[in-house]
Design a protein that fits this description.
The chain is of the alpha+beta class. The chain contains 13 helices and 7 strands. The strands form 2 sheets. It has a 5-stranded mixed sheet. A two-stranded antiparallel sheet has the order 1-2.
Length: 479
């Protein structure tokens, strides 16, 4: 096999692998349009290989600025077309993926071109020891060098794209123009470096032949791979920085929400205590007054209607009593308030609180207790509501229970849900809906923050279509 045929076969293999990596890249972020994933993947690979083959026929292979730019622009729009044809919801994130893929592709391609020149030194050393082997050995060395170069090219693409897929956790994050600019800058910089290297890599000598840049400046054999590696790492570290920024902003937002919840809860507790004290006093006086009036009514035929009216009024006063009695004023107020909301939106929901009992000596501050129970209850109600929307005939329930062991207090909230969770590597807690946006999972984070104030922890588990949240807190006064 001559050298030209070998390079042709290697380039065809590279095109196939690039197409395979591309469909993996797209498939990690978007859902395919075909129901059968195999056909969606194969269609992308075959279309990509055909595009590369047709492009090589019609586009010149020289290194002039116009043709280099034309090649990149054509590749960009083809990859965009490929994404729109075979995948759903390709938005601004798709632009970032395309630019990243192209920059990695160009970086690995240039490295393939310069690798034989980098390998000159060890190759020459081997040649000096084996020069008596003749022409066959020279061919083997040259072909082996190019084989290794193309293998390294494939490995660079595989490792780089795999790294992006694994580290870009926020696949459902709504990217806006500012975030897109931040993500695109490293990739566009890498593409500009590739264009520059393509322009200066070869030049025409005074004798009319082509000179390679390494022949003129041998020191570039070490500098250029280092520069390519840096451009590649800038893309990967840009993604990591982007992920860290999202997590930091999310934690800040969560803390702001928690602070607002604590402030509202403190105000609510004080107001509840004031109102409840007034209601208790009023109920006590009214019940005594009603009892006296009913005793004073003579048992005559004309007074039956008045007697029934007063009896009904007395029963109504009794209805003002709390439905739930857990031993904690804040939790009882929350449960009674949420109960009326639940019955309005989900009339057939079963709310079980028989096992929810708080000890007499409970050192956890009222607003922290409210944060934990309130957020847990809100999440459970939201999950049940979503299940009822999807399956109106489904039975839904929320069960709250608690117990104390030594100085540790355990709260468990069990509820029905639709069985679907989205787990993101950068996020500790699951999210039940893509459409919840940046605030998804913050309720659980706020529960965690409140529990950690009392040296506690939060754990969750799923059993079929039942979500179980467990909160453990130390029932001791904190300083």
């Amino acid at each position: 096999m001559n050298h030209f045929n070998l390079l042709l076969i290697l380039q065809t293999l590279v095109d196939f692998f690039e197409g395979y990596f591309l469909q993996q890249f797209y498939g990690c972020f978007f859902d395919g349009r075909f129901q059968k994933k195999f056909w969606n993947r194969m269609s992308v690979v075959i279309t990509y290989v055909m595009f590369q083959y047709i492009k090589k026929i019609f586009l010149p292979t020289n290194y002039r600025m116009f043709y280099i730019t034309e090649n990149l622009v054509l590749t960009f729009f083809f990859l965009l077309f490929l994404g729109l044809c075979f995948y759903k919801n390709v938005g601004l994130l798709g632009v970032f993926l395309i630019v990243s893929f192209m920059s990695i592709q160009e970086t690995s391609r240039i490295f393939t071109l310069i690798f034989p020149y980098i390998a000159d030194l060890p190759t020459n050393m081997i040649w000096r020891h084996m020069e008596n082997q003749g022409l066959l050995f020279v061919v083997l060395i040259v072909n082996g060098t190019w084989l290794l170069a193309y293998l390294i090219r494939i490995l660079i693409m595989y490792w780089s794209l795999k790294s992006i897929r694994e580290h870009f956790h926020e696949k459902y994050f709504s990217i806006h123009s500012v975030e897109l600019q931040f993500l695109l800058i490293p990739g566009l910089t890498s593409l500009c470096i590739s264009i520059l290297l393509n322009l200066i890599m070869f030049r025409t000598s005074e004798g009319g032949g082509q000179e390679f840049l390494f022949d003129i400046y041998p020191a570039l054999r070490l500098f250029m791979p280092f520069m390519l590696a840096l451009s590649l790492l800038s893309i990967l570290y840009g993604i990591k920085l982007f992920q860290d920024m999202i997590l930091l902003n999310r934690e800040r937002s969560s803390r702001v929400v928690l602070e607002n919840q604590i402030k509202s809860m403190q105000e609510y507790i004080e107001e509840t205590k004031r109102v409840q004290a007034g209601i208790r006093s009023m109920k006590h006086d009214l019940k005594n007054t009603l009892a006296v009036i009913m005793q004073l009514i003579p048992e005559e035929k004309g007074n039956e209607e008045l007697y029934q009216y007063l009896s009904g009024f007395n029963e109504t006063m009794g209805g003002l009593e709390y439905r739930f009695h857990s031993g904690n004023t804040v939790v009882d107020a929350l449960l009674n308030m949420k109960y009326h909301e639940i019955m309005f939106s989900i009339p057939d929901l079963r709310l079980e609180t028989d096992g929810l009992i708080f000890p007499d000596s409970f050192a956890i501050q009222g607003y922290d207790t409210g944060i934990i129970v309130g957020n847990a209850l809100d999440n459970a109600v939201r999950a049940c509501k979503k299940l009822k929307e999807e399956k109106p005939e489904a039975e839904v329930y929320i069960k709250l229970s608690s117990f104390q062991k030594r100085n540790m207090f355990f709260l468990e909230v069990e509820n029905s849900f639709n069985g679907t969770l989205i787990l993101e590597k950068s996020w500790e807690f699951p999210v039940s809906d893509k459409e919840q946006g940046d605030s998804h999972g913050m309720g659980l984070v706020n529960i965690k923050y409140a529990a950690e104030k009392y040296h506690g922890a939060v754990k969750w588990e799923v059993t079929g279509m039942v979500f179980i949240l467990s909160v453990m807190i130390k029932n001791e006064q904190t300083i």
